[in-house]
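One example given next:
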Amino acid sequence: MALNIPPEDRGAIATIRSLSPNSLERFIAALRAAPPVSNVQEMADYVSKEVPTIAVGKLASVLDTLYTLYYIRDLSGVEPSTFLDDLMEGISGSRGLKTTGKELPKLRSLLERVLSIESLNTVSKAARLQRDGQRLYCTAKILSDIRPVFGSDPTVRPAGGVLTHTLKLGYHEGKEHKEFHVVLDSDDLEALAEVVERARLKDQTLRNLLKEAKLPNLGD
């Protein structure tokens, strides 16, 4: 099945295709020598030292597309050759890339090489593992309001009011975006804040543990 290629990714693929043989070899060699880094800009800074002929801004765009392709391939679970078939089918049907039939085998070989970098394979697997769950967090918002408390006569001014806070959690489940609402009071807010702060402290402790073990953090 043809892979849909957004305009920005078409530009990145066109940039890779336009590299001179020397720049291409240096680019691939730099990627192979690079440590597994999840941050695209950090990887761009590293690679740019080895391939100064590519502007850092353009390099970051190219790497962003590569990271995306690796992640999609890993998430899909298909064989690399099948994914490459789908990618090439998408490219051949894309107006923005203007690739002739004769150019396709050469481009396929090129993409096969840049999609066979072990450090980027590691990063994509780490990204999938970090997001491996039935529901994935998307957004959060807390709506606060005053709810009036009326007596038996609704025409009489309210006897008082209560404060409520509604936590709206947005998440993805499969391909669907859903929301879950929870009503909180002031005590609940305090308890929730303590739970989040405890998680933040554990996060920092585990980050320090990775540093002490000299293991790169392959997440955010």
In short: The beta strands are 136-149, 160-173, 176-184. The helical segments are 7-18, 21-33, 40-50, 56-76, 80-92, 104-114, 118-130, 186-212. Residues 136-212 form one domain.
